[in-house]
Write a structure and sequence with these properties.
Blueprint (H helix, E strand, L loop, with lengths): L9 H7 L1 H14 L7 H15 L2 H13 L4 H22 L7
Helix pairs in contact: 1-2, 3-4, 3-5
């Protein structure tokens, strides 16, 4: 299902829903802009979230952006381990629903 070439279809989406897509792109840009949290850390957060949502497009884009912002291999792996621990933790805590009261 993942095909990097699909991203070219975003331009068509821009033309089919211009107001909504313009708002999305503005929000997307603002969300990862430098602020109280530096861009590098925002992109590392985005990598971790992308790993938990398992979106290959987001993993590709945000890992590249994190590297451009100066993220190291060690930082990328630590962000991945944070994502992994949260997914594991969710499975553990949701397991409580499988037990009788």
């Amino acid at each position: 299902m993942y095909n990097h070439e699909n991203l070219a279809k975003l331009k068509k989406m821009d033309s089919l829903a211009p107001q909504v897509m313009k708002a999305f792109w503005a929000f997307d840009k603002a969300a990862v802009a430098d602020g109280a949290i530096p861009v590098k850390y925002k992109e590392l957060i985005a990598v971790a979230v992308a790993l938990t949502t398992q979106c290959p497009y987001c993993i590709d884009i945000h890992s590249g952006n994190a590297r451009k912002a100066g993220a190291t291999d060690a930082e990328m792996v630590e962000a991945a381990m944070v994502a992994a621990s949260l997914r594991a933790g969710a499975a553990v805590t949701h397991a409580t629903h499988a037990l009788p009261n």
